[in-house]
Amino acid sequence: MKEDDIIGILESDDVKDMKPLNDRILIKVAEASDKTEAGLILTETTKEKPSIGTVVAVGPGSLDEEGKRQPLSVSPGSTVLYSKYAGGEFKGADGTNYIVLRVSDVMAELS
């Protein structure tokens, strides 16, 4: 196992308390809509996987060639748009969906 294979430190039984490592961030995934804009009700299998969420925690940043930490461009509380198939997905103790991904997988900060 390489250091890069470890995504974070979990000090409790709940994913929301994870401390991401290096350039990784923990995001609380936005809920998928139950209805279309036209008012059609969607089943669980037809809901589109959301790619928007709120940053819960950020790692300290990656190391540059000189061994200095490079701060991340997002901070906790930011709403972000991220690559749909990036990162590792986890379910919190309360059933909330979370994803851990690299900050480079964030395509835009929405707020």
Automatic annotation (TrEMBL):
GO cellular component labels: chloroplast; mitochondrion
| Gene Ontology MF annotations | ATP binding; metal ion binding; protein folding chaperone; protein-folding chaperone binding; unfolded protein binding
Tell me yes or no: is Transmembrane among this UniProt entry's keywords: no
Q: Which InterPro entries match?
A: Chaperonin_GroES, Chaperonin_GroES_sf, GroES-like_sf
Q: Which UniProt keywords apply?
A: Chaperone
Q: Which Gene3D superfamilies does the annotation name?
A: GroES chaperonin
Q: Which Pfam families match?
A: Cpn10
The family database entries (PANTHER family) matched by this protein are listed as: 10 KDA HEAT SHOCK PROTEIN, 20 KDA CHAPERONIN, CHLOROPLASTIC
**Family according to the record:** Belongs to the GroES chaperonin family.
Protein name per the record: 20 kDa chaperonin, chloroplastic
